[in-house]
Amino acid sequence: MKSTAYTCAVLTVSDKGSRGERVDTSGPQLQKQLTGAGFLVVDYTIVPDQPDMIRETILQWVDEDGIDLVVTTGGTGVSPSDRTPEVTKDLLDCELPGFSEAMRMASFAKTPHALISRGVCGIREESLIINLPGSERGARENLEVVLPAVNHAIYKIKGGTKDCAA
Hints:
By secondary structure, this protein is of the alpha/beta class. The protein has a single domain (about 5-155), classed as 3-Layer(aba) Sandwich (Molybdenum Cofactor Biosythetic Enzyme, Chain A), CATH 3.40.980. It has helices at about 15-20, 25-35, 50-65, 85-90, 95-110, 135-155, and strands at about 5-15, 40-45, 70-75, 95, 120-125, 125-130. Strands 2-1-3-6-5-4 form a 6-stranded mixed β-sheet, with helices on both faces. A hairpin with a 2-residue loop joins strand 5 (about 120-125) and strand 6. The longest helix has 22 residues, at about 135-155. The radius of gyration is 15 Å and the shape is globular.
């Protein structure tokens, strides 16, 4: 495995948060979780639920900055403005449905509202992108579900050859 920490960035997607009408608690919580798990958080920003801004931020982080892990929070529900999954899906080289399925399964055990979560996860170039719900609790709990597999996923995405069972 890689001896140095993988880089990551957190993107909060929120109209109210981007206008300063709501304090973002999900983004800072995710940064704390990721740092605690050994990731190097190199960027964090809040954008409104506008597809172009979501797309530009993810493309900058992945294509230009080469960030290993991009975590988004917000915009994954069924409100008319929730477009994070569509934008993410359009950018992916391939999806990792197991991540999304595991998060929804674990969440559904706690709330039936998990059924309206549409977050996607996948790979673009050599980066892993994970969509999380916008609530602090939902974001935290969903990240906890997949976090044990994230390091190995990034390692394999980057061409690591160590066997999965090793």
